[in-house]
Specification:
seven-stranded mixed β-sheet; four-stranded antiparallel β-sheet; about 120 residues; globular; mainly beta
C-alpha cells in the first residue's frame, strides 16, 4: 500500500499563490501516476491535475490550465501542485491519490488539505 500525506493548504486572497505537497511513502515502486483532486462543499470531487510517476508527463483540468503546475521533486517521493492566480472558485479540500497502472483507478488517497481563496 502507498501512504500519502498532503500539506500546504491555507487561506489566500484571490490572485495569490499556494503550493501543495503530497509526500508518498510505503510501496512507492507500484505508483504509475499521481493525481490531485478537489472537492468543494456541496459538489462532487473533481480532477485537477496528474503526473506520470516515472516519465513526469502531466495533464490538467481545463479550469486550472495555465494557472496550476504539477511537478515531482527529483530524488524525492513528493509531488507538488503550484497554484497561481487563485480564484474563489478554487476553494475546496484538495486530495492527492495514486494509481498502479494506466487502466487502474486511483486506490490510495491522502487525508486532504483545505484551500480557501477569499475574494
Amino acid at each position: 500500500q502507498v501512504q500519502l500525506v498532503e500539506s500546504g493548504g491555507g487561506l489566500v486572497q484571490a490572485g495569490g499563490s499556494l503550493r501543495l505537497s503530497c509526500a508518498a511513502s510505503g510501496r512507492t515502486f507500484r505508483i504509475y501516476g499521481l493525481g490531485w483532486f478537489r472537492q468543494a462543499p456541496g459538489k462532487e470531487r473533481e480532477f485537477v491535475a496528474a503526473i506520470r510517476w516515472s516519465e513526469r508527463s502531466t495533464n490538467y483540468a481545463d479550469s486550472v490550465k495555465g494557472r496550476f503546475t504539477i511537478f515531482r521533486d527529483n530524488g524525492k517521493n513528493t509531488v507538488y501542485l503550484q497554484m497561481n492566480s487563485l480564484k474563489p472558485e478554487d476553494t475546496a479540500v484538495y486530495y492527492c491519490a495514486t494509481r498502479p497502472g494506466r487502466d487502474y483507478t486511483y486506490d490510495s488517497w491522502g487525508q486532504g488539505t483545505q484551500v480557501t481563496v477569499s475574494s
